[in-house]
Design brief:
The protein is α+β, with helices and mostly antiparallel strands and about 170 residues long. The protein has 5 helices and 4 strands. A 4-stranded antiparallel beta sheet has the order 1-2-4-3, sandwiched between helices. The chain starts with a helix and ends in a 22-residue tail after the last strand.
C-alpha cells in the first residue's frame, strides 16, 4: 500500500476478529510512531503496550468511547513525558503525530485501529494512569485500539474546497 492510498483509505475500526496481532507488527507500529516529527526533536512520546485481556477490559471502562478495547488484540497507550521539555506546550502535537503514524502503519499492515482520546480529560486519564502505574510526569494522551478488522469501511471522501483559502482568508 503506498502512502497516499493509506492516507485516503484509513478508517476508524472498532470491531475485531480476535486473531492475535504479532509482536513484529506491534514493533513496526512503534517504529512508525517514533519516526513522527517532533518540535525541536524533543521526542516526548512514551508507550505502554497492553495485550492482557483483563487489563484491556479495565481500560475499556475508563472512557465512554473505549468499549472496543475489551475485544482488541492490542492497546497502545501513547503518553507524553512532560519532564524537562525544551518546548513544553508542544508535547501534545508530537504525540498526536505519533498516534497518526501508528494508525497508518496498522492500516498498511491490514490491521484495524481507532484513536481514543484521553488528554486533557482527567476523568479518563487519571484512572488510566493509576491502573498502569504511571509516574506523575507521564501523561496518557491517547489509547489506540488495534486488531484484525471484523468490519469493512470504504474510503471517506471529506475534501471540501469551501474550507480552503488561498493566500488570505
Amino acid at each position: 500500500m503506498d502512502a497516499l492510498d493509506a492516507l485516503m483509505t484509513r478508517r476508524s475500526i472498532r470491531r475485531y476478529t480476535g486473531e492475535p496481532v504479532l509482536a513484529e507488527q506491534v514493533e513496526t507500529m512503534l517504529r512508525a510512531a517514533m519516526a513522527a516529527p517532533s518540535a525541536g526533536n524533543q521526542q516526548p512520546w512514551r508507550f505502554v503496550v497492553v495485550t492482557e485481556r483483563e487489563t484491556l477490559a479495565i481500560i475499556a471502562d475508563t472512557s465512554p468511547y473505549a468499549g472496543m478495547l475489551a475485544e482488541a488484540a492490542v492497546g497502545i497507550v501513547v503518553c507524553g513525558d512532560t519532564s524537562d521539555l525544551r518546548h513544553p506546550v508542544m508535547w501534545q502535537q508530537d504525540c498526536s503525530a505519533a498516534v497518526q503514524n501508528i494508525l497508518l502503519a496498522a492500516h498498511a499492515m491490514g490491521l484495524g485501529a481507532v484513536w481514543l482520546g484521553y488528554y486533557p480529560k482527567t476523568e479518563r486519564s487519571s484512572p488510566l494512569k493509576a491502573l498502569l502505574g504511571m509516574p506523575e510526569h507521564i501523561e496518557p494522551m491517547a489509547v489506540i485500539s488495534i486488531g484484525h478488522p471484523a468490519e469493512e469501511k470504504g474510503p471517506s471522501e471529506r475534501y471540501d474546497a469551501d474550507l480552503v483559502h488561498h493566500e488570505r482568508w
